[in-house]
Design a protein that fits this description.
CATH topology: Pnp Oxidase, Chain A
CATH class: Mainly Beta
Strand order of the largest sheet: 2-1-5-6-7-4-3
Number of helices: 5
CATH superfamily: Electron Transport, Fmn-binding Protein, Chain A
Strand content: 25-35%
Shape: globular
Largest sheet: 7 strands, antiparallel
Oligomer: single chain
Number of strands: 7
């Protein structure tokens, strides 16, 4: 799907920003798929983004022989789904896949770390925040090759209008 700047700004970026987590699918040496949940996917623009790689095992092993992956975000908001079900249509995409080429792992910049910490600030006083997100230091950039919308019958035919 061809994505222009306006479509990216109004439909795609908000979906990935609001998603609690995204799924990243890679393939191992034997050709078997592996899906990893990632809560830190950030889209810089319509062509590239990054995510923190901290607890993953499949991605670093799989990227050695295949740099391509698919990232999927799903809008899991109850109000979004209830409103859409009542209207019988999605005005915004309920989910989106991106085919990407993964880059090298690198240290995060201070700005990247601060951006992520703002995203999880609500949980900053919890024990879980300290265990999961306090030391987020390495990111993996990716280049977006293609957008693949998730279509769910007639309810999704107007999601990009």
């Amino acid at each position: 799907m061809k994505i222009n700047d306006l479509l990216f700004k109004q439909k795609i970026k908000p979906l990935f920003t609001r998603a609690v987590y995204c799924s990243i699918a890679t393939v191992n040496e034997q050709g078997q798929p592996h899906i990893t949940p990632i809560g830190s996917v950030v889209l810089n623009n319509k062509n590239q983004g990054w995510f923190f790689q901290k607890f993953t095992q499949g991605i670093p092993n799989n990227v050695v022989h295949c740099k391509y992956a698919t990232i999927m975000a799903v809008n899991d908001g109850a109000w979004f789904w209830l409103k859409s079900l009542i209207k019988g249509r999605f005005n915004q995409p309920p989910a989106m896949r991106m085919q990407v080429k993964l880059g090298a792992l690198r240290p995060a910049t201070k700005a990247e770390m601060e951006k992520f910490q703002r995203r999880v600030k609500l949980f900053s006083l919890t024990k879980g925040h300290a265990m999961l997100w306090r030391d987020m230091s390495n990111i993996r950039e990716f280049e977006i090759i293609a957008y693949k919308p998730v279509f769910i019958g007639k309810m999704t035919h107007q999601q990009f209008h």
